[in-house]
């Protein structure tokens, strides 16, 4: 069962601070715009006072087959591979170090598996914002794409993790 809900107007974002301005500003200034334009969906965890303490975003995209490591691409025949992107994932600094980021990622991955039953997607792609995030995702099995800082995890691997 997901631990997050879709961001709504009653969620208080003004005090959200994860320590990275880009992630703080996205939630405070841009999330509503992206939601209205259907560019991303923002999922949040809030405390009892409805203050956002963590969030992530999901959107669909595709990646070039040539960006995928050869051992993961050999059975694929299409030039563009459908993926779901976790574009942002952040935890309020007061809640960091309590595995909330990992819980949010698991929540996102469960949603992506559910989505895959309705809309084809081959993998999950993440956009690590810094070296700390890159190490976080690598520890969980994500591998770098060849031509960007993005990282990749096949949906098959995720489904096997939840079995």
From TrEMBL:
<keyword id="KW-0012">Acyltransferase</keyword>
<feature type="domain" description="N-acetyltransferase">
    <location>
        <begin position="1"/>
        <end position="156"/>
    </location>
</feature>
<protein>
    <submittedName>
        <fullName>GNAT family N-acetyltransferase</fullName>
    </submittedName>
</protein>
<keyword id="KW-0678">Repressor</keyword>
<keyword id="KW-0808">Transferase</keyword>
<dbReference type="Pfam" id="PF00583">
    <property type="entry name" value="Acetyltransf_1"/>
</dbReference>
<dbReference type="GO" id="GO:0016747">
    <property type="term" value="F:acyltransferase activity, transferring groups other than amino-acyl groups"/>
</dbReference>
<keyword id="KW-1277">Toxin-antitoxin system</keyword>
<dbReference type="InterPro" id="IPR016181">
    <property type="entry name" value="Acyl_CoA_acyltransferase"/>
</dbReference>
<dbReference type="InterPro" id="IPR000182">
    <property type="entry name" value="GNAT_dom"/>
</dbReference>
